[in-house]
Design brief:
By secondary structure, the protein is α/β, with parallel strands linked by helices. It contains eleven helices and eight strands. Bound molecules: NADP nicotinamide-adenine-dinucleotide phosphate.
Length: 290
């Protein structure tokens, strides 16, 4: 099964290592207000043109939003989509709610929302109950066996994923935060040792961490806010993406103008030692609660 997963995803090896984060499609988890549909079309289309083909969708409206955009663009076949076990609360309609275990019928609903016939990657986010987690993993494996999901993955597996899930586990990838406030280095290393593909998220922690660093630099050194924001965004993105054992980076983008800057940052490669020291020193100056 593992070799089939690797071969099936092999044709996607030519994509850039950036992944558009699903929070780009909802207003709550970022600095900007909700993006207009036209802006979403522009962002997704520019990213596809640039070779960014992977899209993450965590919360339910993110799947609906991305599905609408891909349908309008007629480019769903170009997208490699990551989906998760987050669903609207049936009683309240709220969607920023904790994950729940997958149920029969969920995959049909997710594929319909996204307008695709199969998912490249399905995250099985643990729900904190061993029986429920076993049951949902079995269900996800059944979806994989019938060909509607290519690879299964897990969220934030900790520093000993081999102990937690066993060396012979159903997963082929992991997603975990990695940024200057939280590097999760041991987790990335151990996940890579299991042969998993690793996805870092949150280089700017919703943009809030970036804002705190900008504020701090402006206060401490009188830097110009816009130029320091650009310099910091570049350094923070490269810190996350080029960390040890990180394969790809999921990043939120609500403004088309960030695309060129972020692609340029990818092109610059790992941080030089002096850049790393500048970033970590600046972070050390930032008060905890911003
Ligand atoms: N953190 C988690 O717990 C978690 C869990 C599961 C999945 N994820 C995935 O990870 C993705 C990213 O994580 P995140 O939500 O923490 O966001 P993030 O990528 O760390 O930050 C997104 C923010 O960065 C800003 N930004 C992007 N490029 C920029 C640039 N070049 N210059 C200045 N600002 C820039 C964006 O601003 P604008 O608003 O102006 O575009 C956006 O508000 C999510 O969308 C989601 O798909 C995260």
């Amino acid at each position: 099964m593992m070799s089939m997963v690797r071969e099936t995803l092999m044709d996607q090896a030519d994509t850039l290592p950036l992944v558009l984060g699903g929070h780009s499609f909802i207003p709550e988890l970022g600095n900007e207000p909700e993006t207009e549909f036209d802006t979403q079309l522009e962002i997704v289309s520019k990213l596809l043109d640039a070779g960014v083909r992977c899209f993450d969708t965590t919360y339910e409206p993110e799947r609906v939003g991305l599905g609408r955009v891909l349908a309008e663009l007629g480019r769903a076949d170009r997208a490699e989509i990551i989906a998760w076990n987050f669903f609207r609360d049936e009683a309240t309609g709220e969607y920023l709610v904790p994950p729940r275990a997958y149920r029969e019928g969920d995959l049909d609903r997710m594929l319909e929302q996204l307008g695709v016939e199969r998912l490249a990657r399905l995250v099985v986010h643990p729900v904190g109950d061993d029986d429920e987690d076993r049951r949902q993993t079995n269900l996800a494996q059944a979806w994989q066996a019938d060909g509607r999901v290519v690879a299964l993955g897990t969220w934030a597996p900790g520093d000993e994923p081999g102990v937690r899930f066993g060396v012979d586990n159903p997963y082929a990838f992991m997603v975990a935060p990695r940024n200057v406030a939280s590097d999760n280095e041991a987790s990335f290393r151990a996940s890579k040792a299991l042969g998993w593909t690793t996805f870092a998220t949150s280089p700017f922690n919703r943009g809030w961490l970036l804002d705190r660093l900008v504020q701090s630099a402006v206060q401490a050194f009188g830097d110009d806010p816009e130029s320091i924001r650009a310099r910091l965004a570049d350094a923070m993105l490269r810190y996350s993406l080029f960390g040890p054992c990180v394969d790809r980076l999921i990043i939120g983008i609500r403004r088309p103008e960030w695309i060129a800057a972020n692609l340029a940052a990818v092109g610059r490669g790992p941080l030089e030692e002096a850049e790393l020291q500048w970033l970590t020193r600046l972070f050390a100056e930032v008060p905890d609660d911003g």
